[in-house]
Structures are given as C-alpha cells and as structure tokens.
Amino acid sequence: MNTIQFLLSTVISIYGFIFVLRAWFQIAKVDFYHPLSQALVKVTQPVLNVLGKFAPTVKGVNLAALLACFILGVGKLAVIQFLDMAEASLVAYVLVGVLNVVHAVGEAIFYVLLISAIMSWFNRSPNAMQYMLYQLSEPLLRPIRKLLPNTGMIDFSPMVVVFVLFFANKVLYDVFGQLWAIATL
To answer: 3-state DSSP helix/strand/coil percent for the chain, to nearest 5?
Structure first.
C-alpha cells in the first residue's frame, strides 16, 4: 500500500470511528454536556444534518451516523480501487461498507474497554471521564459478569469481551478475506 492510500484510509477510518462513537453515545445515553460528547456533536453534526433526512434516529439508534460510517467504508474501497487502477463489484462495495461499520464498532468497544482499564489502574477517584466510560461499557459487561463467577477485586468481563472481539476479527477475516482486510485498513 502506498503512502497516499495509507493516509486516506487512516483519515476515513478515524472519521468512521467518530461516527460510530456518536451513535454509541446516543444509545448509551451518555451525558450530552460532557466535553467529549460536545466535541463529537460538533464534528459530526454537519454530516448528520444531511443524512438525518434519509436515516432518522430509531429507538435511540442514530442510523444517520451508522449510514455515514457505511458511506465512508464504501468511499475507502473506491479510493483504494481508484489508486490501484482495479475494479470491484457493487456487492464488494456494499460488503466493505457493512464490514467497515462492524469493524468500527468493534474498534470502539476495544478502545473504550482499554481506556477504562488503564484509567482504573491509575485514577481511583471517580471523575466525569470514568463515568462516561462506565456508561458506555456497562451494558456490554453486565451480562458477562452475570455468567462469570465472582472473583473478588478482579473483573474478568472486559477480558472476555476483548477475547470475543479478537476471535470475531479472525473469523471475519476467514469468511470475507480481502474484503475484511480492506475494511480494517
């Protein structure tokens, strides 16, 4: 992959990640007045104003943000295909768009769990950032905590989620091959 492909792919992936975070913040009902929430709204609102007319929010899920991430995934494949002077089918574009959303969701989950784990090691006093991470991760971790035995001070549920994410990454690569590799660039 050449430098221009890498740069464009990275920018598109980061912006797709931001759109998934925006949707997740709304699903988890994270405090709207938190500075990170405000930043996400300011960065994504211009695009979501336009896409919101075609994909409204349904049952707390911001479909416009997910549609934006899908469009970015399709655009990423288009850029890669254009720079490589290659062709792809319509099915490949749709699959890469969907896989881009799936990858961005998995990446968001991973980074939220990683940051909350690191913050728990160094900062013992509760603060707004830890509460926001708790709001995001608790709906994912609560069902796993119910299944795992109580181990006292150590919570293994984030490790289980991360293991499932790594396993899903390998399975999706085995199933979709090159399309998954493009979606994860």
So the answer is: 80, 0, 20
**Burial class of 150 by CB neighbour count within 10 A (0 to 12, 13 to 18, 19+):** exposed
Query: Pairing state of beta strands 61-62 and 57-58?
Result: antiparallel
Q: What is the pLDDT of residue 31?
A: 82
Is a pLDDT exceeding 70 seen at residue 59?
yes
* Residue 127 tokens, joined: 């603060």
Its pTM stands at 0.85
Q: Can you tell me whether residue 144 is helix, strand or coil?
A: helix
Give the angle subtended at the CA of 120 by the CAs of 151 and 153, to the nearest 5°: 15
- Produce one character per residue of 9-47: b if its CB has 16 or more CB atoms within 10 Å, e if not: beebbebbbbbbbbbbbbebebeeebeebeebeeebeeb
Q: What are the tens digits of pLDDT across the range 94-105?
A: 888 889 889 999
What average pLDDT does the segment 12-40 reach?
Answer: 88
Asked if residues 133 and 147 have their Cβ atoms less than 8 Å apart, the reply is: no
DSSP H or E run through 61: strand 61-62
